[in-house]
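Quick review question:
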């Protein structure tokens, strides 16, 4: 590169004239870009335009913008460090999704030039504003096309990675969404990235941001006030610490009147949980040295409403349901303890089909063990001399084979042991404040240590459908007033400190036991009575009767005509199945 030209431009000539400043960029660019002088001379000769002026102005503007950007970023960084407050929310928290949903509905997200489109197919129960599109998805034959309906559902737009500003209650907030590498730990070796939300505001206090987050949380809860959240243990391949919970889904809270159970028994259960969840109960338990825990065992034939009652209770008291499967092969006792310790202050822990998890009294295995012990004793008494003749190698080989068999049996064992479950339920470091619900089809198989008082405080028996339950199922299926009542009810709570004398009447109204005669037309009640007379009591589960009515959900007279034939066929099938099981 020839730097002599650049030097000549900067020097002053002998006659006192100063060089033209427009030659400065030309000479500089000529030093870095060979041929620039010829190009600029060609443009000047042909078009009569000096390109050096444009280059000079461009360089000045570029330098000014670069300097201004640097100064602004530096000044903003210093200002943020000393005069702004921040609150971070990572993607492992439920508040992360709530913040994104709230931000997506703000004006900032609608006018922002950098947004992220999220496909919003909605839930199976429909989203707000989606009902108007349902009719358009029907073809000329009245067939609902879900693909056509989903194609017309617009996506949700939320701010993309970067910095966004918005106003709330007259205060400026800065929303910064970023991605960073996940911190690796022994429990989560996954090195995937995690998203992070930073909310900032002007001031040295985080109180305005905390108020905003509190408002967003209330907004989210109000939006899902009639929903019950279901959670399950997070997978071990997730990049979060062990013992965390994932939000699986949310469904509309189930009304208590849809559970087929004796009304007085419903009142007894709700009153017991309501008294347990009362704000003054923890101190009452503590002063008497009683662990603040409550356990229930729902037992009965399949399809009688054990799990349904758990969901209905969660809807009444506004609790989340935490489901744990003890048959999970990767679930260890330490994981189970962490899961119980990471429960919120109030929740329902659901252990379904506890009898299938291997935590049972197995009389056959006990008999086999006794028989094996007796055979070994007899063999040892008869062949004592042969045992003495065994050499050291044979003894080592036998011990190695026995240890290999024990290891294989341990590898095939699934879930957790009975002692591990008991330690998680009421151990020294067990979480307090939760409602434990265990369901089983065979309570006689459960170990007595699992269902003793203190671990199971109330046992609720579910039976096959009685005549009153059959009548209620029929009315609930075909009553139009029932649909209106369910829409108005929503999620209600009764743990409000009401006196015990007045809570019974309010519970009757909450459980749908009041004004039953007035809410249903006389014709429907007569059909329900006839239907209950045709179905034998104590033979079918409520789920079986409901499944029969679902195939005729708009034809009560047709259901009345065909119920006898359906019942006879189902009873005959059950008898055949029982004979086959008995022969085996």
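Suggested answer, residue by residue:
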């Amino acid at each position: 590169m020839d730097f002599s030209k650049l030097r000549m431009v900067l020097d002053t000539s002998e006659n006192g004239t100063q060089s033209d400043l427009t030659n400065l960029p030309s000479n500089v660019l000529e030093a870095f870009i060979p041929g620039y002088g010829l190009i600029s001379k060609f443009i000047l000769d042909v078009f009569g335009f000096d390109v050096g002026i444009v280059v000079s102005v461009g360089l000045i503007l570029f330098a000014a913008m670069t300097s201004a950007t640097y100064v602004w970023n530096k000044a903003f960084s210093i200002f943020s460090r000393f005069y702004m407050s921040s609150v971070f929310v990572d993607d492992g928290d439920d508040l992360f999704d709530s913040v994104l949903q709230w931000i997506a509905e703000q004006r900032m997200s609608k006018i922002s030039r950098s947004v992220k489109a999220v496909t919003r197919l909605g839930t199976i129960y429909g989203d707000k504003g989606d009902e108007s599109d349902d009719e358009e998805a029907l073809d000329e034959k009245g067939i609902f096309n879900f693909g056509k309906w989903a194609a017309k559902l617009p996506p949700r737009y939320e701010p993309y990675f970067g910095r966004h500003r918005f106003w709330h209650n007259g205060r400026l907030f800065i929303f910064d969404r970023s991605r960073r590498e996940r911190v690796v730990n022994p429990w989560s070796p996954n090195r995937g990235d995690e998203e992070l939300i930073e909310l900032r505001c002007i001031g040295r206090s985080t109180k305005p941001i905390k108020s905003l987050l509190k408002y967003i949380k209330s907004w989210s809860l109000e939006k899902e006030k009639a929903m019950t959240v279901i959670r399950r243990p997070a997978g071990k391949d997730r990049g979060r610490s062990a013992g965390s919970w994932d939000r699986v889904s949310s469904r509309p809270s189930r009304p208590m009147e849809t559970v087929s159970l004796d009304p007085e028994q419903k009142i007894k259960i709700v009153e017991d949980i309501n008294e347990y969840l009362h704000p003054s109960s923890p101190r009452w338990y503590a002063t008497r040295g009683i662990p603040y825990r409550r356990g229930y065992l729902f037992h009965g034939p399949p399809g009688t409403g054990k799990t349904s009652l758990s969901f209905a209770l969660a809807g009444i008291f506004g609790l989340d349901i935490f489901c744990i499967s003890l048959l999970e092969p990767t679930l260890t006792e330490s994981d189970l303890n962490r899961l119980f310790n990471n429960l919120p202050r109030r929740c329902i822990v659901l252990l379904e089909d506890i009898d299938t998890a291997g935590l049972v009294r197995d009389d056959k295995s006990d008999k086999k063990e006794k028989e094996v012990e007796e055979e070994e004793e007899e063999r040892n008494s008869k062949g004592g001399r042969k045992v003495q003749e065994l050499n050291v190698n044979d003894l080592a080989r036998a011990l190695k084979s026995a240890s290999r068999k024990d290891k294989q049996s341990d590898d095939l064992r699934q879930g957790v042991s009975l002692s591990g479950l008991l330690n998680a339920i009421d151990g020294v470091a067990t979480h307090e404040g939760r409602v434990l619900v265990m369901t089983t089809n065979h309570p006689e198989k459960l170990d007595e240590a699992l269902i003793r008082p203190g671990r199971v405080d109330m046992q609720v028996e579910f039976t096959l459908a009685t005549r009153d339950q059959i009548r209620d199922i029929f009315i609930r299926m075909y009553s139009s007033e029932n649909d209106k009542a369910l829409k108005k009810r929503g999620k209600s709570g009764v743990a409000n400190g009401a006196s015990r004398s007045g809570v019974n009447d309010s519970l009757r109204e909450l459980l749908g036991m009041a004004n039953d005669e007035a809410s249903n037309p006389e014709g429907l009640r007569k059909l329900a009575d006839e239907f209950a007379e045709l179905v034998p009591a104590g033979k079918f589960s409520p789920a079986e009767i409901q499944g029969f009515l679902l195939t005729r959900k708009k034809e009560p007279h047709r259901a009345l005509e065909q119920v006898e034939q359906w019942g006879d066929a189902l009873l005959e099938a059950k008898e055949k199945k029982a004979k086959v099981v008995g022969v085996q």
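Why it works: Residues 51-83 form the longest helix (33 residues). The CA atoms of residues 137 and 146 lie 7 Å apart.
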